[in-house]
Design a protein that fits this description.
single chain; 168 residues; alpha+beta; Peptide Deformylase; five-stranded antiparallel sheet; three-stranded antiparallel sheet; 2 helices; 8 strands; globular; hydrolase; peptide deformylase activity
Length: 168
C-alpha cells in the first residue's frame, strides 16, 4: 500500500474520538499497511495514528527503533488495535512534534513508564511495558485516537511552543 497524505491541523477529523475496532479483517489489515507505509515515509516519523490519514478507528503504529532517542530501548514495530494504558508512572517534559502539526514543536509532560494493552495486527492480545521515548511516542499516538493533539498538552503556551526550524 502507498503512503497516505497526512491530515493537518485544524482538520476536524483530528479532533474526533475514534471508534473501537470490532474485528481485524482485510479492511483493518489494509489500514495497518497504510499506517506502516505512511510512518516509514514520514520525515523522522516514529508513529502514525489512523485519524491522521482520515480513519476514525482506534489503530496506531509506533516504531522508535530508528530514532536516536529510542534505538536503545524499544519493542520494534508496534501495531496497536484498541490500545489502552493500564498503568502509568513518573512524569517528564519532552519536546514533541507531529506530522499533523508540521510547523511547530512543543514541550509536553508525559508519563515516563506505561503499560499498554492492545491487539496486534493478527488479533492477538498483548500487554507491554514501555519507558522513555517509546512510552512518549505511544502516548502521543494514542492521544490522536481520542482527538487530542500535542498542542492540547503543551505545558505552557507562553514558553513551551516553538516554531520548527526545519522538518526532516
Amino acid at each position: 500500500m502507498p503512503a497516505q497524505p497526512i491530515l493537518c491541523y485544524p482538520h476536524p477529523v483530528l479532533k474526533k474520538v475514534s471508534h473501537a475496532v470490532a474485528v481485524i479483517d482485510d479492511e483493518i489489515r489494509g489500514l495497518i499497511d497504510d499506517l506502516l507505509d505512511t510512518m516509514r515515509a514520514g520525515p523522522g516519523s516514529v508513529g502514525v495514528a489512523a485519524p491522521q490519514i482520515g480513519a476514525t478507528l482506534r489503530v496506531c503504529v509506533v516504531d522508535v527503533s530508528g530514532s536516536r532517542h529510542g534505538k536503545e530501548n524499544n519493542h520494534g514495530v508496534l501495531v496497536m488495535v484498541n490500545p489502552e494504558i493500564v498503568h502509568r508512572e513518573g512524569a517528564a517534559i519532552m519536546r514533541e512534534g507531529c506530522m499533523s502539526v508540521p510547523d511547530y514543536t512543543g514541550d509536553v509532560e508525559r508519563a515516563t513508564t506505561i503499560t499498554v494493552r492492545f491487539r496486534d495486527g493478527e488479533g492477538t492480545e498483548r500487554e507491554i511495558s514501555a519507558s522513555g521515548f517509546e512510552a512518549v511516542a505511544i502516548q502521543h499516538e494514542m492521544d490522536h485516537l481520542d482527538g487530542i493533539l500535542f498542542l492540547d498538552r503543551i505545558v505552557s503556551l507562553k514558553t513551551g511552543l516553538f516554531r520548527r526550524k526545519n522538518y526532516r
